[in-house]
Amino acid sequence: MDATYTAVATSSGRDARAVTADGQLDVQLALPKELGGTGDGLNPEQLLAAGWAACFSTVLDRLGQARNLDAKDIAVTAEVSLMPQASRFTLAAVLHVELPHHLDNPAGHRLVEAAHTICPYSTATAGNVPVQIVLE
Q: Which sign does the torsion angle of CA 129, 37, 23, 95 carry?
């Protein structure tokens, strides 16, 4: 099966640069202050949160269109946390989904549930990362 799209990025660690092959993303990475770093740059968890929020909101919009629901004003905020576990870290996530008034109903809630079952970030982490969805 051929990929529809492949993103390519290179980095040599948490205190280095991350650069995409097309040069559209070129950011300084830094270990967060909470982990003993300077915090003077982005970290992988922030990048994951930004990507997941963007992907999830796009899936909501596309599903909404397919269901004749106006979902373009749904905002998604993703929180990605590092969780200490024995001698390593794992991830946990919370997706805050701000539903506009006209979608704060069973149809809107079903839309969010469906998005979580098909969003590529959600399916990639299913069974590996605990995810809580909070409707707001």
A: positive
